[in-house]
Specification:
2 copies of one chain form a homodimer. With about 375 residues, chain A is α+β, with helices and mostly antiparallel strands. Chain A is about 20% helix and about 30% strand.
Chain lengths: ~375, ~375
């Protein structure tokens, strides 16, 4: 299918990197937290192969931050997540499910602790700022909550460490996974984390001050020319291969963290102040859950809405939420929500794609 | 500029009308509340001329509803708006600024009262569901809050009444402006309002039950063939001519309703339970405010970010938030936020567009 165009407005914000992204030849976007998020540069397959072999710079400014600061900051964040964050270190990043009073997932951000009274919630695509403000206003908490002028730029790929080392030094490269440290950009200290939405390794630089965006971009490209550094973007194929979930695709407000396979981030014994705690205690044994699944046959088309999954006799048992053809694994890699009676690895099911009925095999693990 | 493409994912949801919209030849979309919103069918100018002369059917399902029901529903909604909603009739629609504790605008929805304990908040583009849930959870209010399966379909244009009369009867056509009544679709009673985001007159049908979307679409097109009914969409040119604001473009969380020129919807004497009340009392005399402005010279390019407005000597005094070439008025129609010292009608300023410096004239009123 010919893709539709995306029209311009300032409601769908440009990022501090958009001018460079467009000079690099971006062909397509999606939107994310009311901001442009690049999705194709050369082609999906070429971008994929390059991500796995070299190093890419990703404009992920759409991962907007909610800054929460003040004496009640920890209390407020803990009310929104079943993961116990009480012992986070000041340089830690925690992947946290955000849940509502029913235990339904509202977002799955990375929480950065900056100090005891200051956090950044690095968002997936929903306005968690509004939930935090509502809770804080309702409870009269002593916090400030706002979206700071902070825009993540990811450096991902097997040569990411080499590039980061050249620009920021080997001490930064030695940062542990899901920890953050500081670098100096345009004379200002800024946060850099060992993190990113790929399995290829890398870093996320939290640019503070939109006016420095092109300077940061140029620093990376000037230092990485011989590494074949390119503009890239989150890669649907690669993130499915690695089992990285996408909020709004693989899980929504209709699903609990247990259904999303995120039970290991639910500390129900200690995170009792989470407002979804009672609901999650009730729902800790899910009747459906996310599974890696393989779809046989031809390369699947782009997924625009969940695809119904059924047994060979036609009984509905779930849906596929993400799918793509993987050149490296020579099959369609996919993520599905599958009912308990059918979620055992090895179960053969079928899926209704826009191209017709295709076979579906439940797997025991992701591909990488 | 060649427009970029928009890639598919189920995170950016299709609507109950998307299949018909695509069969009708949609060329471009934007996204709105995590859903596809059509923006171009034949061309912006052809769509504009047709809207003003015939009748169009608009997929505005992206105007998602927040349903709030229960004994505390009125109390909760009133906490989020400075407009006094205490005397709303059960068939009324109110345009309400939604504000935070600072009086900053969070959304500008249309509120539909369904009964004393049941409201729909028909949203502009931000997740107000999350703010309502946060407040209700923080305060322990007795309400249910959820996104119902309701998708507005607008019928707009000078022949909208004729088409609605044929399909639903003359009693429906007689509905007063910003009132709602009921129609039967697929055997089910559904809400229809005399409203819509154009100055051409029309109705918004609140489809309940996604499975009936194509049936409703077909009813309208079958009845309107001789009226030249076409698929259309909100028209930037027409809505600027008429002074209809766009949340996220013309005002954001950074602006009060007074700055947005919405002071008439602020009942500060009676809506004292609005959480932004104290802030708005302080800010009732704004130092900047939205103005209709005319931009001289060639047709302006698409606006992707606010354009800086300055005095002839270069002093910054505001920004243009929406702009388009108007064939009917043979000029560039625009909306700008202008500082008090320069907002008097007749003031000559200048604006930095991507095409260069162009003259800007502050007007006393919109074009229609």
């Amino acid at each position: 299918m010919q893709l539709p165009y995306l029209t311009a407005s300032s409601r769908v914000r440009m990022s501090p990197f958009t001018a460079r992204v467009e000079a690099a030849g971006v062909q397509a976007y999606t939107t994310y937290n009311h901001m442009l998020l690049p999705t194709i540069f050369r082609s999906p397959l070429e971008d994929y192969a390059h991500l796995k072999s070299a190093v890419q710079v990703w404009d992920v400014a759409g991962e907007r931050q909610v800054e929460i600061r003040g004496p009640d900051a920890l209390k407020l964040v803990q009310m929104t997540t079943p993961r116990d964050i009480s012992r986070m270190k000041d340089d830690q990043c925690f992947y946290i499910p955000n849940v509502d009073e029913n235990g339904g997932m509202m977002n799955d951000p990375v929480l950065l602790k900056l100090d005891a009274e200051r956090y950044w919630v690095s968002l997936a695509d929903s306005d968690m700022l509004y939930y935090y403000k509502g809770l804080a206003n309702g409870l009269g908490l002593n916090v400030e909550i706002f979206e700071p002028d902070v825009s993540p730029l990811a450096v991902q790929g097997p040569k990411a460490g080499t590039l980061i080392g050249r620009v920021f030094g080997e001490d930064v490269v030695a940062t542990r996974f899901f920890r953050h440290t500081q670098v100096e950009i345009a004379g200002k200290p800024m946060v850099i984390a060992r993190s990113g939405w790929s399995l290829q390794g890398g870093f996320e630089i939290y640019l503070e001050g939109s006016e420095h965006g092109e300077h940061l971009w140029d620093l990376l490209f000037d230092a990485g020319a011989d590494l074949d550094v390119r503009a890239g973007c989150p890669c649907t194929i690669e993130r499915i291969e690695g089992g990285l979930l996408s909020y709004g695709n693989d899980m929504t407000l209709e699903h609990t963290p247990f259904e999303a396979g995120l039970g290991k981030y639910c500390n129900l014994d200690t995170a009792t102040s989470c407002l979804g705690h009672a609901a999650l205690v009730q729902k800790r044994e899910p009747t459906r859950q996310i599974r890696p699944v393989e779809i046989s046959g031809d390369a699947v088309p782009a997924l625009r809405a969940p695809w119904p999954v059924s047994t060979p006799s036609g009984e509905p048992v779930g849906f596929v939420s993400s799918a793509a053809w993987s050149p490296d694994f020579n099959t369609n890699v996919a993520i599905a929500m599958v009912d308990r009676a059918h979620w055992t690895a090895g179960t053969e099911l079928q899926v209704q794609t826009p191209a017709g009925l295709q076979g579906l095999l439940v797997r025991d693990r992701y591909w990488v």
